[in-house]
Amino acid sequence: MTRKNRTIRTPDSLLEEKLIDQDDLTGVREVAEHYAVSITPAMQQRIVDLDDPVGRQFIPSEAELITTPEERADPIGDDPYTPVKGITHRYPDRLLIKPMHLCPVYCRFCFRREVVGPGEGMLSADEMEAALDYVRSHTEIWEVIFTGGDPLLISPARLRPILAALDAVDHVRTIRFHTRVPVVDPGRITDELVETLTMDTPVWIVVHTNHQQEIGEDARVALRRLSDGGIPLLSQTVLLKGVNDNAEALEGLFRTLVANRVKPYYLHHGDLAQGTSHFRTSIETGQELMRSLRGDVSGTCQPLYVLDIPGGHGKVPIGPTYLRTDGEAHQVSDPWGEQHAYPPRTSDDT
Ligand SMILES: *Cc1c(COP(=O)(O)O)cnc(C)c1O
Q: What values do phi and psi take at 51, rounded to 5?
């Protein structure tokens, strides 16, 4: 499909560009009252069929109006860990800074969908200074993680002083950006941005991407530019029904990432965000998929399958497990499901 070179943000332009039908308009308008819509030109170009792995992630649907009892407005419990505006400090050695509440695209399954979107943009200069002061005064903070919204929507000119302030903090030894920009809006990855991200304190980038169909030639160029700039690249993927909940899709994605210098880091189990039950798989499905990758796909292509425990209790790996211990005896499953005994500990072990 050929579409105009502009970002789609309204139900009417979704209809104009034939991304929804006339019949969908009323429902989609209702969805758009609750949750922001945005599809960049790069992602419009990657949509081949409306219900393909890219279309499903970005085109709003009436299914988002259905909320199930277990779903929550704050699914991973950011709120109780917010000491100052824009910061989530849950783990002792690292914290999140959310400098901006806008994204280049609004994923229909976003776990922060109640708080990101038009209305609130950047933190004010005073709020940013208060966030930086919090980092300066907490010497246990080893890593600062920018997330959002999408922090790489911030221009290099505005990022530079923020990063310089953190670079000057002795106890902050590494900085991380979680972003979708290199894939969904790759034109923003300019030499000027790469230069801005290059300083004494290492900057790592975690790219959010869920299907290889998202990764066009322009995204490959953007990833190459970041990598050539010396920035280590990781990825995070959300396991999504109808998008990537099959072994071929995950294998294709993780191989594509490694072939583009990106190490798959996390595969997230879908969070209990409101109106997203049509995207959630069971944990058993996720474990089965991870099991199918192990052994058949390079170890470099294996992310860790994690659950962010609802209520703010942190992220943990949720399997599958390969070791079973019965009394002192270990049984280990190989990648193909065959069981092997491993000797129990000897009296010499401490
Ligand atoms: C996910 C998350 C992090 C980062 O966790 P890692 O396991 O280090 O990637 C940090 N803080 C909060 C509040 C988070 O939700």
A: -105, 25
Q: Which two tokens stand for residue 317?
A: 């790996």
Test site for ligand 1: of 97, 98, 140, 145, most ligand atoms within 8 A of the Cβ:
145
Span from the CA of 156 to the centroid of ligand 1 (angstroms): 24
Cα separation, 136 vs 95, whole angstroms: 12
Catalytic residues: 90-91, 94, 103, 107, 110, 112, 271, 308, 315
Token pair for residue 244?
A: 């990537």
Mean pLDDT by 10 residues, the chain (350 residues): 80 97 97 97 97 98 97 91 96 97 96 84 95 98 96 97 98 98 98 98 98 98 98 98 98 98 98 97 98 96 97 95 94 96 78
Measure the CA–CA gap between 68 and 2, rounded to whole angstroms: 37
Q: Is the CB of residue 250 less than 8 Å from the CB of residue 223?
A: no
- Find out whether 166 and 144 touch, Cβ atoms under 8 Å: yes
